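Why this split exists: single-chain examples teach little about how molecules sit against one another. For that reason, every record in the complexes split bundles all components of an assembly together and asks for one structure covering all of them. Below is a record exactly as it appears in the raw files.
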Amino acid sequence: MEGLSPKERMKIPRQHIPEQDPEVRKTNFKEVNLGYTEEMAILEAQRCIMCKNPLCIAGCPVAVKIPDFIKMITEGKFREAAAILKEDNALPAVCGRVCPQEDQCEKVCVVGKKIKPVAIGHLERFASDWERENIGIQIPTIKDKSGKKVALVGGGPAALSCAGDLIQMGHDVTVFEALHDIGGVLVYGIPEFRLPKTIVKAEVEGLEQSGVKFEKNYVIGLMETVDELLERFDAIFIGVGAGLPYFLNVPGEHLNGVYSANEFLTRVNLMKAYDFPRYDTPMFDVKGRNVVVFGGGNTAMDAVRTSLRLGAKRGIIAYRRTEAEMPARIEEIQHAKEEGVEFMLLVAPLELIGDEEGWLKSVKLQKMELGEPDASGRRRPVPIEGAIEILPVDVAVVAIGNGSNPIISQTTPDLKVNKWGNIIVDKDTMKTNKRGVFAGGDIVTGGATVILAMGAGRTAAKAIDEYLRDPDSWDRPKAQQEELAETTK
Amino acid sequence: MNKIIEAKFIAPEIKLLKIIAPKIAEKRKPGQFVIVRVHDGGERIPLTIADSDIDLGTITIIVQGVGKSTKHLNMLNAGDYVQDVVGPLGKPSHIEYFGTAVSIGGGVGTAIAYPTAKALKDAGNYVISIIGGRSKEYVILEDEMRKVSDEVYPTTDDGSYGYHGFVTGKLLELIDAGTKIDFILAIGPIPMMSAVANLTKKYNIKTVVSLNPIMVDGTGMCGGCRAIVNDKTVFVCVDGPEFDAHQVNFDILTKRNRMYLLQEQHSLESFMCNYDKMFFSELKEQKEKV
């Protein structure tokens, strides 16, 4: 390995991750990607040229020390590779699966400037899977107990990442989750075939073994307010996610057969309705039926691919722009196509049409064309006059995003939110206007990605640690803080 | 896991359950609900909190066994556990001094109307309660209602007890007799709430109903409980469950509640069938022992 020159490394082709055959996988909920073998991982790791000034670390929202862990893989030191990942990422096996690496670390990979970038995501997945499967998830080193207590509101990626850092910093950490399972969108939203629930469970158990406490079925705001929490905790992090689905705002959205993506996916993932009646929660039986999903993001792909696995005859994505504008990861779009998902582009729903008993029968679509570029520079879709199509469907899933959940803001009136209900924070520290209260993830940014929420969780953890060790720092202006840091150096 | 400390049938298929949930008991306000899962793998069942006891740390729910999950819940007894309970969810009832307030409960709806009737009484209202049932045995919580009401009128569809007819018949009788009514709370089956709404709209009496749509998470995340109120989409779990009766689209609510009728029947049949098998195998075992 040491002997390989950068040139030789660049000759190694990017290792393709083995996948389940599309014809087989579209009939099961097992994971699509199968993961590297040890040999493949080492070969792929050797493609990394170990840049003196690596750009990939800055490309990662949680700043994983990418070249370091990859180097360990090249040496066959998988345990050490996993440990390095864990220093910066509380959920590496999750991130190795669902992060949009092509827009982050792999986008800026120096190798990628000439040939295909190093498959950082696949390697991250490999190292953390190897650890879990061979030696069990290892507990990171934990600093001396600080005696300070932190409450994290919400059990999704933002809070879990924040919890992972805070526990290592020596604080006492409790996560409050409204649902009966920990993981937020990782358990109710992202399907089994993309992120097996056993993996989420294992990473959550890892945090639990590190000392993080979890309170499930605990709705902050209703069971206990943020103000009440402040009486028994030294700091609070709010990471409750977006969690209030948007609908289309067209006639007929109340019809039976119309779902938000959240509901459709929650019934299948969290409540396991695909195994009804062994599990009690039912859902619309899509076997042999037509399913249309409105939206072009990862959630839309998750929903449409789930419908095929439930036996739908046709699974259709209806999107108002073109494929180039779809926010979904390229890999997800590719996988969807391989599985037989149909793409209807440049269409917008006008109406959902039902029968007298209130069941969805068809959707009326307006065909669009690309017009002049808008403020963002993207060509805006405009309706083609008179071009209307009726698409017969039995189920319509709306996957066009989420507004902000109102429970925290309604029960914490002095917490500052913007006009969309998103909590306002200082983006360097995730501090809210309320002393001791920090926030991050989708409740701050609106619907985004798992890894961006995790990045916010990390930023908050750093600021929370600073606040807990020096509460006066809350009021100190940033410039003064930096000055202070300089002098103590 | 939450322990059941008391369980008794108070009417055919209607069971009162006291469950240990101290934090919810302390926090809950009239009109709010909990979500119960009977077992791991169970449905999330929304149930209004009928009462609570802070000292004992218990909440009371009153459950009508209709589908698989509620029938399963009603098979549990004191000493048994449910998988989990989460709450209190939803907005509390809006309580103020109106003057004369009529609380109307139809069937198991009386259990939902009870805590709000109590709160209305505590707020100084003159409370008249109309509690309906198919026949005498289905009229529930009469004693409790008497304690928090100035007047109580039981009604039965078959005339076996109290006023012979529907709750709306009794309500109309009160209106015709010149009773000045300032506020009405009506909770029960959708046809009943819809009938009350139609009647009181004519007389322009402020009326509130509590809606019972199909829910999953109960915190606004899934939108499955959406209803149409004042021609707008609302999420009953976070915007309700109580709404102005004159603005609710009951037709859509009825249709949406039928969404899983087939699956629910299927689930119930297979459950009862397995239950019978279980029951008979236990019986056989006992016989064999003898």
